[in-house]
Please model this.
Amino acid sequence: MSGFAMKLPGYIVTALERLEAAGHKGWLVGGCVRDAVMGVQPHDYDITASSTPEETIAAFEGFRVIETGIRHGTVTVMIDGEPVEITTFRVESEYLDNRHPSGVSFARRIEDDLLRRDFTMNAMAYRPDHGLLDLYGGQQDISDGVIRCVGDAAARFDEDGLRILRALRFASRLGFRLEEETHAAVLSRAHLLGGISAERVYSELCGIIVGKHAGTIVREYARVLAEVIPELSEIIGFEQHSKYHCCDVLEHTCRAMDNSAGDLTVRLALLLHDIAKPRVCKRGADGCDHYLGHPELGAQMADDILRRLRADNRTRETVVRLIELHDCAVVPDTRRAKRLLRQLSYEEAMLLMEIKLGDRMAHAEPYRDISEIIAMKELLTELHRQSPCLTVGDMALGGSDLIAMGMKPGKAMGRLLGDLLEMVVNDSLPNEKAALAAQARLMMDEYTEE
Ligand code: ATP
Ligand code: MG
Model:
């Protein structure tokens, strides 16, 4: 074979040697071989082997073995404290629907195992004593920057529709394009995505939108993604008659994503930030379109979408909040920065600025100025460093002090504390106990329970 050689960690070498000693054949396969061919350090190593799970377990006598997915042929062996997944060569017998293989059968030959894998670049195997086994031209496709199904693309998507999103995920991550037949089958089979579980879809979708080339993929395959987020079809080609914009909403969305770092929350928020624009769009007397209320409605729509996709609560809640705030004015002064830090944690406030940067840079040429956003980021960071008083809990005077001063606990006391905080945040009162107590004494009588 070629002179291609992988540098393997010791625990992987041990795993392959053990299999060999027991009379079996083990191969590295899938992502780790693809990464190595691309000159990227693999993040994990999968082994596929001729041994049945029982034979694998017997081969690793004396090691800790976890029966992770015996039915699917997978066992995990702990070697030098590292988990190594070893899966028996498999062929997928017919898929009855396009979601689940109707049965998994073990195979005796590596060739059969490679045939069931999704793309040529993921269907290569490697053994130190053999070198690269590349039956479908994976190496060539990698050097051409092409994602190509193994075998007939449409049939492969019919077997498992999730492969459609996997193709887009790898394209977004690697900047590859889909080979012609694979591309055509992605478009013609997109409807299959409707039958895939939300969890599987969401996980691939996240992979797509955090990719370096997410904007390019969302632009080219928006109609495919609309199979899992139907609301996206509303922004495709939705022109904006507004001096702030020079393109339709989808194009603006893609540019905004391209302008931002690949943080999942930021990218999800940008994907959906203007999703409500078509629904609220009104042509004004000035002949321009206005989108009053699009952040609020967009936040609601994002909440629906992310619930449907079964996103985790924390991600969903943060994205929804950020979309609601995405159109806020940014005036970089200390008072406003402090106010923002009362609404959002420092981390969230910085995410909001990242969203505003992406959004702003995707505006029409005269409206791309980001200097205020940059200045606000600096202010937020400076305030965070000083960690000044921003919440009631940070104040030098608390509820128990007010009670000692004769006030009754309750809503009125909460209001008084809130108003004192406002004064501290506005710098009209120092955050010192004596000053706060004096001010509280002056105000107290006005704060009684209704
Ligand atoms: P990553 O770096 O994202 O982990 P990966 O290639 O390792 O990439 P996995 O999802 O971990 O991707 O899958 C491991 C391997 O299993 C793939 O390389 C591919 O050979 C095969 N595979 C995974 N999912 C499918 C699928 N739905 N259909 C066919 N083959 C698949
Ligand atoms: Mg993997």
Summary: The chain has a mean pLDDT of 92.
